[in-house]
Write a structure and sequence with these properties.
alpha+beta, 4-stranded antiparallel beta sheet
Amino acid sequence: MQFPQQYPGKMLYTHFHSFASLHAVPVARIREMEACQLPTEPIRCVIRELDVSNLKKEELLQLNDLIDGYNKDLAFLMEELHKRANRRFCHSQRFTEWRMQLRREHKKAHALLTPDQQKTHLLSKGGVQGKVWKTALEDACSSMERYWRAIQVAVHDELRDKAFYSKLNDAEKYYVACLLSKAGSTFFDMLDGKSPKLTLPKKLKGKVADRRNLCRKVRATVRAHSRRLPRHGIDRSCSLTTECYSVQRDSEGNQTLKVITKKPRSRLSIPVKGKGLIDKTIKIIRDGGRFFLHIPLKTHVVPLKNIPAAPPAAGKPTLHCTALDMGYTEVFTDDAGHFYGADLGKTQNAIGRKMDALYRERNKWHARYRNATDCKTKLNIRRFNLGRKKLEAFERRARATLDCLVNRAINEIMERRPSSVYLIERFGRQFNFDGLSKRTKRKLSSWIRGTIEERFLFKASVHGAKVVYVPASYSSRRCPVCGYVHKSNRNDDSFVCKDCGHRAQSDANGAVNLLLAAHDKDITKFMTKESVKTVYRKEYEKECKRRGATPKEA
């Protein structure tokens, strides 16, 4: 793209005299648009296998009992947190208050029992020691807090799209944001039917005229999103704090994990394969007959090298930004038209076809199993044709293949396009897998979207780069030269503007529009599609007026 001479106006390609100025976004705009705060010390998970080959049958049973007991407690405590009286304990450090309350209630009930009954009346439903029970309680509270935070984010996004929200003044919008800012007392008071009174900043325009009606609307939306509360699933993991285990080393550096058991003052010694630090809260994962240790470790930030200089804009500091468009056939396309992970579409289709074939075959055997009348035939079908080991092994390999592809693509981005800020669209796209079953589509789509988001945010935090979500509405249909927005502008991988004739690769064109949106002060973080379209239309009409042309219909 050739950059014409710069002139004042809205944010189009023609408003920048060089690629350097196009990629230099003011720091103030980055702060306005920044959607996620990345940790300065990101956490990575190291996985090591426990060597249980030399454990006795009784010792292996002790390890399985520990995991089963922990999960029984976790399931019970999560069910208790579903109750209105207990749900507010999940927030922050209030789990300590709930822990003391449960202990007092148990002690009171324990005193009313006979000596024989007291022996079987334990605080832990799974029969584990108090240290493990305490860890299960903290995990249950953490899981429920994450659930309510996810609900709050989804509700806030939905409310912004409703007609009544656009009519609220600044104070009322701030009030709604405070209700949905954290899973604390204010939020749960609102859920309990109250209308919390909050102290609002004096600089906000307007007042909260009808708190009761506003809380009613927020509460109804929250309840619509929270009809299915989370419940504990498969019993396969157990979290242990440093007081529940210790690590011993021999002269050769080999490590042995001494794990707490259900029996007081008795620990189980398990050799750990590999070498490395074992610290903080760890997890023991049971996978079939094998056991793995998940160890969270801090990763030091390694800043990216050779980041291009960002020239100041109107005397204000800027940061060098790179815009990335997430695709289906490739992982990302940058604003310069470079593709990363170009084999993504081909790999996903191959995996999807194989997965669909496996599911169809299993469905046939399920039908035979239901229709069979002979018990021996049913047993054989269940044993040899409906087992999950092979299917789960294939899914693990498929997911690992996609993970490797995504990792390589993101590493290439960091190496080829080092930047202080990466501008991306919000990860909400449902991939289109034509010809595959609905079950396969859902699974593949959740795999790839979750992997790309988690890996990109982690790698950005490792390199100290910011990640900014930009409204992606109409980015694939908008011409970055004249601003004309129309669905006929894009035809698969080709973009041709029906007004000025600008041609580009469609994904690269979308990335450029994300970059331009980061410059435009009229584009804000949580704009609706209609609002974005209105801004783009005004921009296009202004450009037509400058050129002396007649605007085309949208």
